[in-house]
Amino acid sequence: MPVKIDTADGFLTPLIVCDECGEPIRDARDGNYHWQADGDGPGPGRRFAFFTHKACCDAFERGRGGAAAWYAMELSDLLPRLAASLRLGLAAMSE
Ligand SMILES: [Zn+2]
Fold first, then answer.
1. Which domain of life is it from (predicted)?
2. For the residues 21-40, what does the mean pLDDT come to?
3. Residue 3 C-alpha to ligand 1 middle, in angstroms?
4. What distance in angstroms lies between residue 47's CA and the mean position of ligand 1's atoms?
């Protein structure tokens, strides 16, 4: 999973790294997450997630079976879903 910890500035900063170009995605609005379609829809299966900059999305899919082989959503949509699956109450954190 392309999540790395950057310590260059003396702090522990988690970064999501683009699976196409290898550079960090610095703005959630500039990123997508992808998972393999397998031709049967999202279904109950568990699939690994991959990340790209929006500018790298087409190249990522083209190099891995084409757009029909992948589902993709905006990275900004993943973070609330991930927080919910981890039972991380974001509303409680902002209080
Ligand atoms: Zn990229």
1. Bacteria
2. 89
3. 14
4. 21
- Look over the chain and give the mean of its residue pLDDT values, rounded to a whole number: 86
Give the pTM: 0.81
Using alpha carbons, list the distances in angstroms from residue 32 to 18, 41, 93: 9, 18, 25
Cα of 36 from ligand 1 centre, angstroms: 18
Q: 59 C-alpha to center of ligand 1: Å?
A: 9
Q: Please tell me the distance between residue 78's alpha carbon and the centre of ligand 1 in angstroms.
A: 17
Q: Which of 71, 44, 45 is nearest to 60 (CA)?
A: 71
Cβ neighbours, 10 Å, residue 64? 15
